[in-house]
């Protein structure tokens, strides 16, 4: 029997829904969290003419050569015993990452998405450059650590500040994102020299769109904001949002397909703003974005689409 491998944490409701759907279809699913390695997991593989053969043991052992597709969902970092010396822990994590992910990454199967492609596509400056090159409309943007450069870009109006890395780690180890913030030139000081900053024109919005892509299938959903906070950043006020399916303009679809091809992504969660005059402005693509919430609230069949993809459909 062949297996579908899902790499994610145990407490992942999105993966839960897909696992349930695949179970209904009679598929054999292996769920593995890299946080189990090396304390609760064992790797035993040998190199053959066809690649690596052997097994990886988590909640159950699975044969690498029986894997037909892999979903790189949200696996956690490798966990090393606290009592180990710091150098030994750092070495173990490094070796685990290269060993386990190197072996898994060599599997010649469908990846959604391959971790190497996922990692490379996460660099927002690269996304924006590729999007502009393939013909998508991208807001005027600068990345700078120079206060004068920032002030010159801002002029007399307001622009938005967005985090480049998608968030920060809080003191308790949790992940916090940086909301979109309006700034003006008179607020810029020498603190800008401390790191790189992304400033972007403040795009007028009729509504925003979350476009979820799985292979050749595209699921565009309009997000209508019901508060001032949500109009600036809809992530800050989910309770005010409403949703509806929308049509994707042909030129945007063409640009998006070229973007996904160049980034090497099978899956992506893309964000756009649609201006009052109907222009679609590309903001970003998250190669491992959340989507179950919008599937439920907008009644979009993303769970079944992901199950189709893992079964080998949706070419």
Give a structural overview.
By secondary structure, the chain is an alpha+beta fold. The protein has helices at 13-24, 86-105, 115-121, 124-133, 147-154, 228-232, 250-263, 292-297, 302-311; strands spanning 3-8, 28-32, 42-48, 51-57, 61-63, 67-74, 110-112, 141-144, 158-162, 168-169, 175-176, 181-184, 197-201, 207-214, 217-224, 242-245, 267-274, 280-286. Strand 4 (51-57) and strand 5 (61-63) form a beta hairpin. Helix 1 (13-24) crosses helix 9. The relative contact order is 0.14. The model has no long low-confidence stretch (mean pLDDT 93).
Tell me the number of structural domains. 3
The percent of residues in helical segments reads 25-40%
What order do the SSEs take from the amino end to the carboxyl end, as H and E? EHEEEEEHEHHEHEEEEEEEHEHEEHH
Number of strands: 18
**Poorly predicted parts:** none
Major sheet summary line: 5 strands, antiparallel
> Tell me, what is the CATH class of the largest domain?
Alpha Beta
Q: Main sheet: which strands, in order across?
A: 16-15-14-17-18
Span between N and C termini? 22 Å
CATH architecture of the largest domain: 3-Layer(aba) Sandwich
General form: globular
Strand content: 25-35%
The secondary structure category is alpha+beta
On the 0 to 100 scale, the average pLDDT is 93
For this structure, the CATH topology of the largest domain is Rossmann fold
Radius of gyration: 21 Å
Counting DSSP H or I runs of 4 or more residues, the number of helices is 9
């Amino acid at each position: 029997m062949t297996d579908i491998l899902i790499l994610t944490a145990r407490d992942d409701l999105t993966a839960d829904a897909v696992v349930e759907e695949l179970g209904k279809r009679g598929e054999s699913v292996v769920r593995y969290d890299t946080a189990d390695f090396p304390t609760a997991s064992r790797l035993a593989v040998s190199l053959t003419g066809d690649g690596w053969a052997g097994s990886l043991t988590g909640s159950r052992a699975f044969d690498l050569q029986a894997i037909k597709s892999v979903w790189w969902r949200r696996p956690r970092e490798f966990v090393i015993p606290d009592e180990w010396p710091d150098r030994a822990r750092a070495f173990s994590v490094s070796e685990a990452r290269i060993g386990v992910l190197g072996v898994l990454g060599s599997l010649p199967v469908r990846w959604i998405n391959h971790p190497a492609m996922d990692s490379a596509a996460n660099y927002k400056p690269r996304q924006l450059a590729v999007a502009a090159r393939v013909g998508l409309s991208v807001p005027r943007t600068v990345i700078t650590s120079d206060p004068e450069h920032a002030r010159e870009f801002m002029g007399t109006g307001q622009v938005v500040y967005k985090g480049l890395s998608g968030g920060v780690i809080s003191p308790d180890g949790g992940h916090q994102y940086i909301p979109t913030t309006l700034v003006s030139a008179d607020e810029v000081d020498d603190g800008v020299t401390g790191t790189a900053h992304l400033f972007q024109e403040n795009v007028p919005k009729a509504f925003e769109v979350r476009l979820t892509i799985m292979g050749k299938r595209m699921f565009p959903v309009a997000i209508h904001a019901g508060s001032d906070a949500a109009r600036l950043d809809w992530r800050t006020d989910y309770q005010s949002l409403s949703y509806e399916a929308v049509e994707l303009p042909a030129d945007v679809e063409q640009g998006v397909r070229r973007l996904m091809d160049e980034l090497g992504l099978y899956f992506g969660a893309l964000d756009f703003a649609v201006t009052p005059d109907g222009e679609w402005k590309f903001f970003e693509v998250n190669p491992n974005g959340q989507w179950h919430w919008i599937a439920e609230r907008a009644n979009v069949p993303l769970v079944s689409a992901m199950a189709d993809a893992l079964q080998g459909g949706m070419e």
